[in-house]
Write a structure and sequence with these properties.
mainly alpha, 2 helices, 95% helix, rod-shaped
């Protein structure tokens, strides 16, 4: 009889622990959904800013082409300065894309791990 109570107590304890783990998993799944939505919003913002950057870059290039057509040294210096600024913006954009790609890889790895854990419980 004593052994039966002990087994029943252990069973109850394991069931409670399993319920706690399921609740934790559900919370983490909800958090993952929230993070996924935020990631999509960040990607959308990044794409929008990229379009704006491209528009500015093209505008600067058109402006520079107009200035460089006159052939004056001062205008060429200005052209080079603006071109340098444009290239700096492009480098910053590429660095940001690289950071975004690294972040996406981390998120996808996390999602993959969570899916493996979920498949384990199902």
């Amino acid at each position: 009889m004593d052994r039966y109570r002990k087994l029943k107590t252990e069973h109850t304890s394991v069931c409670n622990e399993l319920q706690i783990c399921k609740r934790k998993l559900d919370s983490k799944c909800e958090a993952l959904l929230i993070l996924s939505r935020e990631l999509e919003q960040c990607r959308s913002d990044k794409d929008r800013l990229k379009v704006i950057t491209e528009q500015i870059r093209h505008s600067q290039q058109r402006h520079l082409q107009r200035q460089s057509s006159s052939g004056k040294d001062e205008q060429r210096i200005c052209y080079n300065d603006i071109r340098n600024q444009t290239l700096q913006i492009e480098v910053e954009d590429l660095r940001q894309q690289l950071k975004d790609a690294h972040g996406d890889i981390k998120v996808l790895t996390l999602i993959q791990c969570i899916l493996v854990i979920l498949s384990y419980f199902n």
